[in-house]
Design brief:
Blueprint (H helix, E strand, L loop, with lengths): L27 H15 L1 H15 L3 E7 L2 E8 L2 E8 L4 H11 L11 E9 L2 E12 L2 E8 L16 H12 L3 E6 L6 H12 L6 E5 L10 E4 L8 H8 L6 E4 L5 H12 L3 E6 L4 H10 L4 H7 E13 L4 E4 L3 H6 L12 E4 L10 E12 L2 H8 L4 H10 L5 H10 L5 H8 L1
Helix pairs in contact: 1-2, 2-3, 6-7, 7-9, 8-12, 9-11
Length: about 425
Amino acid sequence: MNNESSNASPGAEEPNAMMQEIAPEARQKALQEELKGLISLVGVEPLVDLLLERAFQLGATDIHLDPRPNGMNLRLRLDGVMHDILHLDPEYAPQLVSRIKLIAGMNIAEKRIAQDGHFSNMMMEQNRDVRVGSGPTIYGERIVMRLMSDGSRFTSLEQLGLSDKQISAIEQATARPHGMILSVGPVGCGKSTTTYSCLASLNEATRSLVTIEDPVERRIPGVNQIQVDNRAHFGFVEALRGVLRQDPDVIMVGEIRDQETAHIAVRAGLMGSKVLSTLHASDTGATLDMFREFQITRMFLADAISCIIAQRLIRRVCEKNRETYTPDEVTCELLSIDPAEAEQHKLVRGIPADSNFHTGYFGRTGIFEVLAMNPSLRNYVVSGKPGRTVFEAAQEQGMETLEQSARDKVLAGITTPEEMMRVLM
């Protein structure tokens, strides 16, 4: 499901790590031995290719190369959690960093400042994009590679983890001829995946669709996609102004980062275009407060926003290795279960095994909070009520919160109370 990715990018989400279905093909120790053997035999260049291949197979969203006093630590982010994979001796670290920077089109001689780059690689019979970021630390240069999801695959709203009621609210918002649909949350929570899913549902020959992205994450047939380039002074603001003069029906803005972009996006939503975008905000109520910080007129804000989707990614219990148990009193309180009825609720937890990288979890799904704007909520916004008040009013009207969404997934045997607390507390 952020420009993130995830932010993650779901990474990834971000990236479509949300619904990753590729089973791990190597245990942690086996992967370590494989990489060690390769670098000792043939050097750094094949190591990069094998590392990327294994990372994609495991469903990793990020590869971290962290310098240490005695070499470099290689780590993978799997299902949102970091795992140590390998320690590289000092002699190999500079070679590995230089190799990655070279293929990413970065300046290998410049080590004093942060740099960004990217490259594409054929993995698993698909062209996979990799974003690269580098920067100096006290022990040397650090590299982080964000592994983008398969750009040819799209996740439907039904697959994201939304409830039927939430899907209905989003579909009603996308059916309107104009207005803003916002996906919000922290980096790597799947905002981009959700936004692309909404865009895919609107991608019809009868509409003119345009995206403005940094970078373009997925190539979509039938959609005009624009890559911003800040070095050429062509950012989101300049691109959005130009697109508004080109008769768009649907505009996807990769991310609203500043006041000027927010103003133009709101104006576009009021002028007859449907606007899809992402924003870094903790929940639906906080989103409204952020737009007030951007100094958007309350009346414009109330009229422009159709729907706000707040989300997180939560790990799924491994399907192959799991067990059931009866919740104790503390867990019952967390899940709003009557302790006297604890025996009626069988929860699940994973058993650490090779198939789940010894975590008990494999794959992720989304938990969501969907605020659909209606006349009463618009009145709250117009009258200047804070976002928390609007949030509470929406909850009273039946809006399912992030916490309720997570609780439902625990009771359904999808995740655990511990994972719920890790993500939300």
